[in-house]
Amino acid sequence: IRVFRNDKVTIADIHDLRPDHIIISPGPCTPLEAGISNDVVGEFHRGVPILGVCLGHQCIAHAFGAEIVRAERIMHGKTSAVHHDGQHVYRGLANPFTATRYHSLAIAEGTIPDEFEVTSRTEIGELMGIRHKEFPLEGVQFHPESFLTTEGPKLLENFLSDVE
After folding, report:
1. What is the pLDDT of residue 26?
2. 62, 83, 84, 143: which is the annotated catalytic residue?
3. Which of the 8 DSSP states describes residue 153?
């Protein structure tokens, strides 16, 4: 596993690494200030499985033309029950499960391109996950790496195992 800041690595550097998976991790600000994260989505989504977490999730949507807006509820260090479709990264996970959220922005749901499907929501319907219908590209608004996300380790294991 190699970790790079989104402003301290180039697309060429990533090509040289020949990654078999990419995680675009959380961070401050918006996709417009996310270094090369949007370019990584555009360059690698056809062949390398990509998981976007929080800002990474927003970058995936933004790279395909969706709008990122202020969330109706600001969630910093709060948990929600996440209901999901049981597929791909969600295979074998409790449904719902508790997930930790740290965000004030969200994908404007009406702007999500048709090539994506919604994969998870909170108990009150807030968008928590998207997946590309053709390519190995998935995003989650919550934080699977947080110790309060009960199914986080299994979700990440599923991603790294290419569970279908």
Report:
1. 81
2. 143
3. H
